[in-house]
Amino acid sequence: MTPAISTRGLTRRFRGSFGVGDLDLTVPAGSIYGFLGPNGAGKTTTIRLLLDLLRPDAGTIELFGRRLDRGHRDALALVGALVEMPSLYAHLTGRENVEVTRRLLDVPRQRIDAVLRRVGLEDSAHRRVREYSLGMRQRLAIALALLGEPRLLVLDEPSNGLDPAGIVEMRALLRELASDGVTVFVSSHLLAEMEQLATHVGVLQAGSLRFEGTAGELRARVNARLAIRCGDAARASALLTANGETFVQDGDTLYVTLSTRDEAQVNALLVANGIPVSHLAREHASLESLFFELTAARPAREAA
Amino acid sequence: MTPLVRALSAELLKLRRTLALWMCLIAPATVVVLLVLQMTFSRGPAMQPTPEAAWLMFAHGVLGIWCFLMLPLFVTLQSALLAALEHSENQWKHLLALPLPRHVHYVAKWVALVVLLLVAFVVLCVLVPIGGWVLDLLKPDFGIGGPPPLWMLVRTSAAAFAASLLIVSLHTWIALRWRSFTVAVAIGMSATVCGFLIGQSERFGYWYPWSMPLHVMAGKGQHLELVVLVGVAGGLVVALLGPLDFGRRDVS
Prior knowledge:
- The complex is a heterodimer of chains A (304) and B (252).
- Chain A has helices at 43-50, 94-105, 110-118, 134-146, 164-179, 191-195, 215-220, 233-242, 263-272, 287-295; strands at residues 5-14, 17-23, 26-27, 32-36, 58-63, 66-67, 79-82, 152-156, 183-188, 200-205, 208-214, 225-230, 247-250, 253-257, 277-283.
- Chain A has 304 residues and is α/β, with parallel strands linked by helices.
- The longest helix of chain B has 37 residues, at 51-87.
- Chain B is built from nine helices and no strands.
- In chain B, helix 3 runs parallel beside helix 6 (150-163) and helix 5 (103-138) runs antiparallel to helix 6.
């Protein structure tokens, strides 16, 4: 299947900062793709390149197999986008804001009610945007992005400035869109948020792509660990060392990295040697810990 | 609908409830009211002019102040207001990510400014006769009588409008090129002030873009054809070059 986004060697440098270098992104159609990275990693630069707001120094972009550059902008008809803070006309009403974009896109008038309903703003559409809360502005901007019935939705930090209820609503909306077949490309530094949402993940640091794959593949890169509490931590650690296991000790808890033995075998080893185990739990690495592992692996200036 | 027509229709909607729309009434009305008050309180000519001459004196007075001062400032302010609609919340990152040719947004702004200026000229042509009649009521000694000089008014206005197309194009580019409202207004105000001196130069005055509209009326109108021609041709050239620059620009 043709990917929703495919970039090859995408590069854009700025004087005095990283920009992005040699990005090969592949965003599968139908995925929710979490584009992760610390602030300043180049996420917004990448998104601006994907929308032809910036011109690349080198490299190519294809959206659903269609080339995108200054001379070929038709592929943007497949995209709805929200880059950073919503851009709205504060002196116009919510409905008038949608109507401005509707006129530009030349889509049927009925679409206005459809998108306002979808983001839950139909009751506030007659109010001027200057009276809107940040959450309402964010939803209106999503309505604008959805107006052209895009196959790909590109969102830059959509949870910024939203309260917890707003974040939950946003997550539900994105899931709903994905279930309708819309590919969602969403950048974020909120890793916990992406962990609950993303089917695919790309990790960007200092302008380079450090990892790309499914969320499961990312987790599999780091071994799970086993938390053990037992009657005699000192004997247990000696025994584990003698048997070639690596672990760290935190108080009376031992964290064993699972590699050669699984949890049952580690348990059997301890019990067979007369060490009673009171607590045994397998811990999955969170995306957050993986992320720090990936992005802290190299000092930032090395990639510059 | 072509992309340009769509962009123009969006532009029209964006102007709703804006100062830019009101300025088309406020700017010409200010000049007419000012001239009515000035002529009401001035001593008046030593020799009583004919009614036609009195009408012409009033109409010339209004058009002179309009072309010399208010028109360049009007173009400055309106171009800055039109551009600020997009600069203020960086609307460009929304507009330019839509599947329309980029230059369409630029051309739509230029057309919007041309139309706003045209509306202001029409309002001026309507307000001058009204102002003359009010002046006649306030100060019958001024000598206004008979029909207003509509032909002179329309002809001079049309020529001044054509001669102002060069500054319309220059200010469209300036206002869209720099995000700062202050930069656009500072350039326009400085250029207008420079016009006080340069515009009076017999050798260079009619080559100075911000003085071209005034030179439609200067002397016996000996520079009228030149300033109209240069205004229109120069205006079109700059209006065509602007989108080339705009199309290459990145949105930061």
